[in-house]
Write a structure and sequence with these properties.
Layout: H1 2-7, H2 9-25, H3 29-41, H4 47-65, H5 68-75, H6 88-102, H7 105-108
Helix pairs in contact: 2-6, 3-6, 4-6, 5-6
Length: 111
């Protein structure tokens, strides 16, 4: 199940679209991270979770800032066109954060 949630083109496209919508509605990074987490898990992130998401987002932002082609490759998975109004680097980084959050038990199972 984990490999499907991480690698399937339909899921990656869905994560990208969720990240796109969050970027369009929230400008602050912490607000974006919180929104992704809340939409996926139906709760607010704990401080340690927020720190982990923030650190991962910053690392991915740096990674894609140095490799725009890798960002574009990630963002062209699926059939939905990329929104040209959204920054490619930020979207790729937030898409990867969304992928991680969506692959947690809190996101894919109800208790």
């Amino acid at each position: 199940q984990a490999l499907v949630l991480l690698d399937d083109p339909q899921f990656l496209e869905a994560y990208r679209m969720l990240a796109t919508n969050v970027i369009k509605t929230d400008a602050a990074v912490d607000a974006r991270l919180t929104k992704v987490f809340r939409l996926a898990t139906r709760r607010f992130p704990k401080p340690a979770e927020m720190t982990a998401m923030r650190d991962y987002y910053k690392a991915e932002l740096a990674r894609y800032g140095n490799d725009r082609k890798a960002a574009e490759k990630l963002l062209t998975i699926g059939v939905t066109p990329l929104d040209p109004r959204v920054d490619v680097t930020q979207l790729a980084a937030l898409t990867n954060v969304t992928t991680v959050v969506m692959n947690t038990p809190d996101a894919y199972s109800l208790r």
